Amino acid sequence: MGTVLSSFSTSLDGFVAAPDGSVGPLFDWYGNGDVEVRPPGYPITFHMTQASADYWNRTATSEGAFVTGRALFDYARGWGGRPPNDAPTFVVTHRPPPDDWPPFPDAPFTFVGDLPTAMAMAREVAGDDGDIGVAGPGLAQQCLNAGWLDEVRIDLVPVLLGRGIRYFDNLDSQVMLDDPEVVEGSRVTHLRYRVRH
């Protein structure tokens, strides 16, 4: 069975964004090297260090489905209709799609009213072997609380933001994680934890 995972670039003090949603230096590691990485579906090329590129290529391309919240969808402008890794994407929202949506007829997005429905649809689409990426700190927290999240990935950036949006803020109880896989990049440490169920 595939893995349900959440991955964020995170400050040392636990924030994934500033109060206004901007990411500041949290994504600088995507451009601080000379190895080209072209994620499926992204119309951009990253330039990472070799260590970060190897980690990315090994961990970031197995998603059979992607679940995101509306705030991240809006912030990313729907990724121009091409979601991360070109995976079928389920947007959890109580609002209708934007008026100008979709940008082209076969954009692989489905707008869903609640997280349990989105997760059920994602599991069906991902099949037995496809991973499900969960994006948005609120959704990651809800998945942890429900016992659905199998893996937590943190791209730990050496910066203290002081305030903002935390990766994990509203957990119902303590969550135990296994010891991490650690990959040291430049200006980032990649941490991969299995959730103990």
UniProtKB/TrEMBL annotation:
| Name the record gives this protein | Bacterial bifunctional deaminase-reductase C-terminal domain-containing protein
Per the record, a Pfam family? RibD_C
This entry's Gene Ontology molecular function terms read:
5-amino-6-(5-phosphoribosylamino)uracil reductase activity
Q: Which ranges carry the Bacterial bifunctional deaminase-reductase C-terminal domain?
A: 4-182
GO biological process assignments: riboflavin biosynthetic process
Q: What is the lineage of its organism?
A: Bacteria, Bacillati, Actinomycetota, Actinomycetes, Jiangellales
Tell me where on the tree of life, at the top rank, the source sits. Bacteria
